[in-house]
């Protein structure tokens, strides 16, 4: 079961990192709307990776949903919460290493 969780987490990270980061402007529909500061920073050549930031937000929401659910999802809830935590942590580390 732990190997399945790690595989799922790895697949999620691969999917998130596979998004073309410049293909489209983020919109409120995908959960991230750049602020004026973000747009100004992008003009200066800094990239803020909106898909990665959106993925972090979605993982945080999924974790909250798992934690407040009335059921245990067939015994997978605790492992799923841990996988969300690890994925969030890895994405945050990736963003830290990309700061210019």
Overview of the molecule:
Mean pLDDT is 74; it is low at 20-30. The protein is 65% helix and 0% strand. The protein has four helices and no strands. The protein has helices at residues 2-18, 36-43, 50-68, 77-97. The protein has a domain at 37-100. The protein has 100 residues and is mostly helical. The chain is elongated, with a radius of gyration of 15 Å. It starts with a helix and ends with a helix.
Total beta-strand segments: 0
End-to-end distance: 39 Å
Main beta-sheet annotation: none
SSE topology string? HHHH
How does the helix and strand content classify structurally? mainly alpha
Binned, the helix content reads: 55-70%
- Enumerate the spans where pLDDT stays under 50 for 5 or more consecutive residues: 20-30
Mean pLDDT: 74
Radius of gyration from the alpha-carbon trace, in angstroms: 15 Å
Taken from the alpha-carbon principal axes, the silhouette is elongated
User: How many H/I helices?
Assistant: 4
Share of residues in strands = under 5%
